[in-house]
Specification:
Pfam families: GDPD (PF03009). InterPro entries: GP_PDE_dom, PLC-like_Pdiesterase_TIM-brl. This is Glycerophosphodiester phosphodiesterase. Residues 3-224 form the GP-PDE domain. The protein contains nine helices and nine strands. It is an alpha/beta fold and 228 residues long. The chain has helices spanning 20-28, 69-73, 86-92, 104-117, 130-139, 156-163, 177-185, 198-207, 217-225, and strands at residues 4-7, 33-40, 46-48, 97-100, 123-127, 145-149, 167-171, 189-193, 211-214. Helix 4 (104-117) packs parallel to helix 5.
Length: 228
């Protein structure tokens, strides 16, 4: 099977991350899945941004949780882009989405959005946080979930199995053949982040992974062409 290609925050290597511009570019480039990050604004909107504050990716400053959606809309998220909300992304693109959440509160709001918009077949909820995934599993029993891991990658297979996740997304430098083998034994797919170089792709092939999370359209093209 060809590798699953996941566009990281859209295609953040060539467009402003987590913006509609980035997500639309990822869809045009043919990515199988688009990944995005979610935080709650002060008034409970599902804001699409990676960091807990706006400093790095906008011309503003301060925590997302202390700003209303209207205040966040006033910020420039790069090249004139505005900070989107989850519902706008779901409408703007038709590709499947990996929605990363940080806590149980976001899980509850996302579950309501998935129910309201009928997105059960398009959304996989992903997180580093077990509690957030447990909350998702309780609210959306049938929706696919994935555990994301960095330093905790050695424990990924057992944690994922305990959560009922059928996929793990592991930091590539921390991923070992042993972890992959244990996942395989439990029927869990393994993808890795962030795969941006030929050397990264070679390691993905060596480990026999199911997919990659990448910042770059060129990586997607290399996989499709069979160059990797």
């Amino acid at each position: 099977m060809p590798l699953l290609t996941v566009g990281h925050r859209g295609v953040m290597g060539v467009e402003p991350e987590n913006t509609l511009r980035s997500f639309l570019r990822a869809e045009r480039e043919g990515f199988d899945v688009i990944e995005l990050d979610l935080h709650l604004s002060r008034d409970g909107a599902l804001v699409v941004m990676h960091d807990a504050d706006v400093d790095r990716t906008t011309d503003g400053s301060g925590p997302i949780a202390r700003k209303t959606l209207a205040e966040l809309r006033e910020l420039d998220a790069g090249q004139g882009e505005r900070v989107p909300v989850f519902e706008e992304v779901a409408e703007a693109v038709s590709a499947p989405l990996q929605a990363e959440i940080k806590d149980r509160a976001a899980a509850r709001v996302l579950a309501r959005a998935v129910e309201r918009l009928g997105l059960h077949e398009r959304v996989r909820v992903i997180s580093f946080h077990d509690d957030a995934l447990r909350e998702t599993r309780k609210l959306l029993p049938e929706i696919p979930i994935a555990l994301v891991t960095g330093s905790s990658t050695p424990t990924a297979p057992e944690r994922a199995a305990d959560l009922g996740a059928d996929m793990v997304s592991c930091e590539l430098p921390r991923l070992t053949a042993d972890v992959v083998e244990r996942c395989r034994g439990m029927g869990i797919e393994v993808i890795s982040w962030t795969v941006n170089t030929d050397r990264d792709l070679a390691r993905v092939r060596e480990l026999g992974l199911d997919g990659v999370v990448t910042d770059l359209p060129a990586v997607r093209r290399a996989i499709v062409s069979g160059a990797a």
